[in-house]
What does this fold into?
Amino acid sequence: MTEMSNTQIRLVRLALIVGLIAIWEFYARFISTSSLIAGPSDVAMAWWPKVMGEPRVRAAVGITLIELAVAFAMSVVFGMLIGILIGLTNIGRRSMYPIVLLLYGIPQAIILPLFVLVFGLGPASKIAFGFSHGIFPVIVNTIAGMRNVSPHLLAGSAAMGASGAQQVRYVIFPHMVTTVFAGLRLAMTLTLLGVILAEIFVSQGGIGFFTLLYSETFNPSALMALVLTLALMAIALNELVRLVEARFSRWKD
Amino acid sequence: MRREQLLIRSIQFGLVAILFGAWWFVTHSSQKLMLLLPRPELVWREMQLLWSSGRLWSAATITVTEIVKAYVIAVVAGILVGFLVTRSRNLVRIFEPMLAGMFAIPLTLFFPLFVVFFGIGPDSKVAYAATYSFFPIALNTIAGFSSVDELYLRAVRSMGASSVQQFRYVYLPGALPVTLTGLRIGFFICIASVLGGETLAAAAGVGKSIALSAELMETARLYAWIAFVVLASVMLNLLALAAETRSERE
It folds into this structure.
């Protein structure tokens, strides 16, 4: 088979998605007898005004975004701080890095009920749980990024009289960017994962409240409309981090 | 070198010892935290109780069965899809970004849908964990098979290798390392998803037991369950690490 052009690839991809939606609609409308299957048209009808037109749902999405923003900001700040402290010395890295990796490997869902006990039912437990998810990729990638800096460049800049601060600004920082941003993107996904896990576990008026409401009242079209809206937001956030990453690694090309 | 190693180990053990010491000291010097942070010896007694009463085993059996089922589904589907997609470069260019994009969405969002469709029993956890761990396995299989050097393929073809031989001697060894990474990532995602799903909505299992003991405010038991999962996860991680270092050496 010959190589297809980029436009052709996009067209095929679009056709696939449209085809899948069509099959889904057809199945929901004509084949399935289950009331649990909602077709794309039902979902679209439920999206507005029932789900996103409802001010309480919009407020819930807003709260979730704020929880995400706070948890992500905390993950980045504390993650980089801890990462730099650990990565600064050889001994620090070799003694603490394995511990960080082991902690990172623990399935964190098991401490979620504890977080709710400690931080309560409100946004604090969501922020804390998002933070505990997001901080690890930032720490790990900051440490990895600091190792990427070539000692020759450091020696070279020192020989030309760069101060410690200048070395950080002009040598270490630009070299860390690629790795750290890969960590930030992962942190964004994981923070969102943590916030949503906590929301679905227990929620007072956040999105978890509405997913529970829609599932318990067997309202699959509304549930899907809400879930798909949040999924689109997740994709948008991911793209945003990627754009920022591209901006900061411009120096490379 | 030796001395450095010794220093690193003593820092690590010192840290753990300080943490446990602080835990003991804080819980013994004041009663205020009793509700949220029980004394270490109470947690230890609760761990022994869970172990000997068989409650640990009945919950673990359910959870491990779910993990195994979900992982087998994810591995078969992931490798199959990954292999089929890499049959042509165009297919890779069409599907790889779609799969990667979907993997960037926290699939936990869809967990309520899984519960609506598959019920509160083990099936919803199996389906959810299988879906979640399918993505890293498929993506890494695609990456593995696309990283096979065209040059080697042309070389063995010109030497008259059959397609089975091409697969056995070029594709498989070339794709294996990256695919194995995917299998490892998928495995840990599978465990986390099953436990997460059980914590959110389940009838039984380790995650459910944890959520239940939190609801009943039995914090010592809650910590005991957490301790068991942490121990199991640390052991699994160390095993995976040891296996990896061994395969790298070969």
